[in-house]
Amino acid sequence: MWNWLKKPVAVHQWVLDYENDHQLDKQSLASKAKYLVLDFETTGLDAKKHHIVSAGWVKISDSKIYLNSAQYQLVKSPASVGQSAVIHGLHNNQVQQGMELEDLLSLLLNELKSSVLVSHHSALELNFLKQSCQNCFGRAPAFKAVDTLKLELYKMQLKGGPVAQNSLSLPACLARYQLPEVTEHHALSDAFACAQLLLAQLKTRGASCTLADLFQQSR
Amino acid sequence: MQVQEVVSFLQQTPPFDDLAPHVLETLSRDLTVLYLAATEELQPEPQLLLIRSGLFALHTEQQRITHLQSGDFYGYQLLLTDLADPDTIRCEEDGLVYFLPQQSFDKLRHQYKNFDLFFQRLFSRRLHLYQSSQQQSTSTLKVADLVTRRKVSIDCSNTVQQAAMLMTEQRVSCVLIEQDDKLVGILTDRDLRSRVLAKNLSASTSVSQVMTKTPQSIEIDRFAFEAIQQMSQHNIHHLPVEDQGKAVGVLTTTDLIRSQQEHPVFLISHIHRQHKAEGLNAITSQVQQLAIQLAEQHIPSYEVSSVLTSIMDALAQSWLQIAEQQLGPAPCVYSWLVFGSQARRDMLPSADQDNALLLEKEPVGAVADYFSALSDIVCNGLASSGQALCDGHIMASNPELRLSLKGWSGRFAKWLNTPDPQALLNSSIFFDMRLVHGSKGLFNVLQEDVLARCKNNELFLYHLAKNATERQPPLGFFKHFLLEQDGRQRKGLDLKKRGISLITDLVRVYALSAGIHSVNTRDRLTILHQQTVLTQRQRQNLQGAFDVLANLRWQLQAQDMKRGRHLSNLLDPTQLSLLQRHQLKDAFAVISDEQQILRQRFCREL
What we know:
The complex is a heterodimer. Chain A contains 9 helices and 5 strands; from the N terminus they run H-E-E-E-H-H-H-E-H-E-H-H-H-H. Chain A is an alpha/beta fold. Chain A has one domain: Ribonuclease H-like superfamily/Ribonuclease H (Nucleotidyltransferase, domain 5, 2-Layer Sandwich). Chain A is globular, with a radius of gyration of 18 Å. By secondary structure, chain B is of the alpha+beta class. Chain B is built from 25 helices and 22 strands. In chain B, a hairpin with a 2-residue loop joins strand 4 (55-60) and strand 5 (63-69). The radius of gyration of chain B is 28 Å and the shape is globular. Chain B starts with a helix and ends with a helix. The interface between A and B is medium-sized, with 28 and 25 residues. Strand 3 (64-74) of chain A pairs antiparallel with strand 1 (32-36) of chain B, so a sheet runs across the interface.
């Protein structure tokens, strides 16, 4: 019960380290940058009420996905996965074998120091990241992410015309670039699919596209 | 943690499909993934490249060599040999590629033999022909497998007593007689009894006086069933075996009996033992049985074809003997010829008769009558033994095909000088000819005559090459299969018309242009390479493509036979495994390439 009294100082250091080291040159070329493509499976959509059950990520460097960087972690959830099991297929007994949320966050913060965070519909990942850091460490860094959904929306709006409902879902975007489809809601599979989508999107943006451009288009 | 999507893809892609799931999971982590947009070029790297999606083109000096698509590899040349490819890869449709680093590639090659073999073959462009070792044929014996390399020989200047002493000492039933290291005769136990003792000759009689002169012999690399065929045809029990023209031992009937009982050799010797028509009529069912049996043993198609051809040859020889028994001795020397697939030793159970007679004298009067009767007996006999009559009447029973040397020579000359469509069609049948029975001398004269007329006959070769490249393999621009229908309204790939025949046609043009006597496609390829008409790579490519197509067709027909269906050449590509599809596409691509080369060589403007 008194654990929180002992931990904050040591654990807080993860946030400080991240804030110190996460220096991105926004003018660097998007095709040369390092990315960490992240996907969470959660018990619901509200970061305040729901929990992360699994996280998957894969890293990109120099426009190449390195599969040896692929990670998949189950996270111990303080509450039941409830009805969300229908979507991600993870049940309470599996989730309870996962790692502590704090350990996942420290791992992620460390990995994110040198990389740009990427996900599809990044608001969800950002909200859960911030809320979790706040809960565990008492403070959340100012995360910023490249959103493949917004990148896609940006291109579609440039072309003009109405944006059909559902045309921005991950499967729809993958199909548009004739990329292999994802069949299941699995954090790592989705992260990998999202990473392939980013590679394809970078190609449509030309060689001079910078990180700043990507962030701009992700708003 | 592995990405399941990548592992699943590897599981469906040869040669990775042979590896265990946990190996693939570890392996998948070594990969990097790259996305390429159309018109982008790939820089060569010492990594194995595997196409995941999209369409890529391989170029050499601005010329497109081939298309690469999902499941295709590149970069193995650099990994295997340290020699950089002169080719470049350009993306034509956006797609993903996987890279496997050299280290992982080398590790897999060391650990998994089939994996290594796959890329070695891919590199040598010998197509994706790899097989698990247990599928290798065990039942098709070679002479080399049976004969003991032990030569017991004596010079022809010796006496029969010296020969008998040597045979006793060496405990053999026959001795080879040599002169200046060359085989000139053979002397057996039986010869000593019947030619020396029974004739009351003295022990000091010279061996050369009683030996069998210029005996039959066989090369050591021939099939055992060929030896049996030769021995039963000439009714001999000892067959000298030669290795590159030098005697190395003797094959005896005992050696052969020691080999397996169910072997085709026994069927052939059974055929030769039949001296009455009734005995041969029952052969059909046995040939079918044998064919199905060979199919089940995974014998490569060229060996099966060779076995079937030998059986059909033996049948023809037996029917000719029966005919001669009935009609009395022939009024003149003759040669029984076969054409087409039987001549090429490419036969399948569905092949019909293609035969003819070459006569020493002009077929008039009594000579004509005799051979007309002989042909009727043999052709109808063969039909009753299971070799169907030829729809196109290319049979000796057709008087047009019973000609003297002069007659045949004139016939060929006409085709050669006026290469109209019918003549070209004829050339694809008649120019592949082989002697099955009768005078070898007579046949040799005709063959020499025909080959001499073909060689350097540019106009004829021009038309022949043009004709050989008119039909193309059924491969579309994007390397997809083009299906067609047969008379029975089934859709599929015609393996014969759009594959095997294209290769035999193509190889025939080269063979005739180079004056090669052999008609078997494999033999022709070997000789063409020896004469440097074809490069090693061309020979391997064509050979490989031919084997892939012939094996597929053989599997297809063996299935039809088992189910008692009509034998078909039409293949449904959806029935193929991914590996087989690969092989088939490669085979078709080889044909396309080679047709182009052939056209360039023979079809330039005259």
